[in-house]
């Protein structure tokens, strides 16, 4: 308990890392809800990888331009990484969404290819850049030990914007996701609302990748959402449960990592996996009271009832 | 099966005294298809106001394409669709999709689904106000769906889902109720009950109804007009005109051929 008391102390040396981790934990599932409901789980895997490729490209840029940033403030590196991450993520998500709308080819094939190419491209980009490779490897491992006040403020502002937009337009985003034909007949601009959904997802993924790396971003985007889906009966429950699971798991994960000197990101991911497994077991062996039958609708398959 | 009349549902006829034979939708030499290639052309049909029209045809005959074109989901290849509503107001479609088109993954209650019908009147960053929510409850009562509206939509039976979706369509305050294969996936008894129910809504509220189906026997007792899409041809007429032994023989001969 001593370690918990230390973490909760306002003078805790790594408090910015705790705050960032918890912010990402709360925010990622909010957009992960749309990835799961639109059956775009593979996009949740591919996007963080593409985002980290953007970081790799941005960190390689000074080398290509013959600039030496090694002696400069880390804020410049961070801004550069953010620009690369968000540019790659938004271009990728809009391109993938466009192809999804056209309905040609196999979506899984496209996303799998995007994932593999992005991962390979990252390695190629950094193979000649020792300075950038070190920064990128920290990111890949989910090292969130050193978070400056600037980084924390940037993350908090960005995620607050996402939260506000989601809250204001939840009705429209949900309508276009659930029944686009109805949305068209109600004269909603479905292209605009689709684009906004993807922009929110891309923006959140970029922020999360910069803060906790691609692996953990994927974990926070999808695993709390899938866990919440096991128990939620309404959209409000679904969104709130997912966000709470993500936020609380990120805090407990940080505590465990601090207690046993483990890397924070992987600890979070394993913890989320355990929670999902436990949730699945509980749902399977003890259906919720009042349910006449267990809900057999899963993100992997269609409902067996109705 | 009774519907509960509600003043909000009353469907005003045009103030200029136009009767129910006045066309509300006119397909004018319409060609429909995908990517500029017509799958069906030369469609010139008028849908009368307050009529009950069934669009019949086998799979692949172009029923869904015609519906998508009418709803604005895809542009016509040629020709046009004329809309005749008072004061040039936009025509409001109350669309009832096939239940299989809606993903059961969404944790929505029946009420949540029906509430979406009001979203055309409730702008962005606003929650549906109390009067709209009350109106949705009225629609659910009118379709006898209020008893299961708080249950998860994905767990309802096919017939129950259809009632929720019809309530949602009524919640749009529609000029035209468009139903896409409403009896698909519903057992025979429930399908008959559903058609009677739709017929009753039509009679009580004087709504224009467009119903897409491939089930000839179900609609012949209810529909006034038939649009029959068959092998690139359009047959159009009243039930009495089309369902004569001679015409039926001609149609089925075409089917066999």
Describe the structure.
The complex is a heterodimer of chains A (306) and B (257). Helices cover 78% and strands 0% of the residues of chain A. Chain A is mostly helical and 306 residues long. Chain A is globular, with a radius of gyration of 20 Å. The relative contact order of chain A is 0.16. Chain B is of the alpha/beta class. Chain B is built from eight helices and nine strands. The radius of gyration of chain B is 18 Å and the shape is globular. The chains are: A mainly alpha (306), B alpha/beta (257). The interface between A and B is large, with 34 and 38 residues.
Give a quick precis of the structure.
The complex is a heterodimer of chains A (306) and B (257). Chain A is mainly alpha-helical and 306 residues long.
What are the key terms here?
A: 306 residues; mainly alpha; ABC transporter involved in vitamin B12 uptake, BtuC; 12 helices; 0% strand; B: 257 residues; alpha/beta; 6-stranded mixed β-sheet; 3-stranded antiparallel β-sheet; globular
